[in-house]
Amino acid sequence: MTLIERKLRRDALAIFRAALEAAHAGNAVRRHVAIRGDSLIADSVKLRLANFDRIFVVAVGKAAPEMAKALEEVLGDRLHSGIAVTKKGSSRFRSKRIRLLEAAHPVPDRTSLAAAHAVRELLAQLHARDLLLLAISGGASALLTAPVPPLTLADKKKTTALLLRAGADIFELNAVRKHLSLLKGGRLAALAYPATVVALLLSDVIGDPVDVIGSGPAAPDTSTFADALAILKKYRLLARVPDRVRSYLTLGLEGKNPETPKPGDPLFRTVHHVIVGSNRLALAAAVAEAKRRGFRTLLLTSSLQGEAREAGQMHGQILREIASSGNPISAPACLLSGGETTVTVRGSGLGGRNQEFALAAALAISGLDQVTVLSAGTDGTDGPTPAAGALANGTTLARALHLGLDPHRFLLENDSYHLFDALGDLIHTGPTGTNVMDIHLLLAR
To answer: Do 33 and 272 form a contact (C-beta atoms < 8 A)?
Structure first.
């Protein structure tokens, strides 16, 4: 790589780090939650502390430790107790009042069941003069797993895995999961009732819908049994999911199993939702850092969806257009997008949506000078890999071929991780303390 290409790589990583810092979950909580006088303030929510005997914290998600730590700092001695549930091996959080539990992600296991059981035990203690601060971040759906009887953990694991491999988006995935759970789709709020609940959400979902983030444990559910069955039919999974899952959903459609709580249910009168962080916030910080580094900037979207390889190819073509015509913005240019793409797995390789995005973009920009693509997950993990994402430029294809590696074949096999690992182009951040979907950067000098 040339000196300019190395400089572009450093710029891309610095811009990404600025996005991560702005979206850090602990900082997000501290910006939105405070004690002022005799009240707890969470944005527009104001609650008199004298109305509550006890305050509890339940934090669930990849950013749960950071959110729990911030809440403990804000509450001080007012905090009675709590639980933080996060991904295995991702935190060293320690607290005298908040118990840390680790569980599996993205496919739940018995640790996810144990975490859900512990949270349900805490909820069973609550009464009308209790306040529950519920901190939810990405990954909460898998980390807190409580299958509705007679379903088993194996039933939920297989159903989740099938939907993930089929390319279902987060809206579809969570619509199904909510109808198979004792805690999702507003059912956690039902267990907490009549306590007051303030749900603090670090959004990892496009558009920040409170009933989808973390499968909406404290939100009225707008999806139905009919929606869940339609999603399984769409992906031709109805005959492949476990018999108990198919039977439970079918009986629910017939009115023989209870629906999730819906808008207008009285149990939500004492529930409040506050969005404390999102992809838009991270992108805004990235834009500011790119401008500081001398780039003209253009934010394409914070709502990117669809197949990762198709999105990557499209972004690569935009870079090619910049190089040839200066449109839609002339160099030095930084184009940004955010959101969450999906991967329909057809091969047997290893990778994630950001690495697949970067590989498809690399094929589209092959041969271009002074361009760089970065695609990475803000949570520090991309699919079932230890990498957050990958970097690509106009030499990626040539460098791979020089090593005897065919990038087209790696893309076909969904094996982007091993290609970028061989090239030394993976991005490793470790746990980031946040999870607000993905960031994509296009740089051109």
So the answer is: no
Domain boundaries 27-146+181-223+260-277, corresponding CATH code: 3.40.50.10180
The structural architecture, per CATH, of the domain 3-18+280-444 is 3-Layer(aba) Sandwich (3.40)
- The tens digit of pLDDT for each residue in 226-271 reads 999 999 999 999 999 999 999 999 999 999 999 999 999 999 999 9
Whole-prediction pTM: 0.85
Burial 21-37 (b: 16+ CB within 10 A, else e): ebbbbbbbbbebbeeee
List of E strands, 189-265: 196-202
Pairing relationship of beta strands 371-377 and 438-444 according to DSSP bridges: antiparallel
DSSP secondary structure, 416-436, as one string = HHHHHHHHT-EE-----S---
Backbone angles phi, psi at 116, to 5 degrees: -60, -40
pLDDT in tens, 28-59: 999 999 999 999 999 999 999 999 999 999 99
CA nearest to 298, candidates 322, 316, 279, 324: 322
Tokens of 373: 């693509």
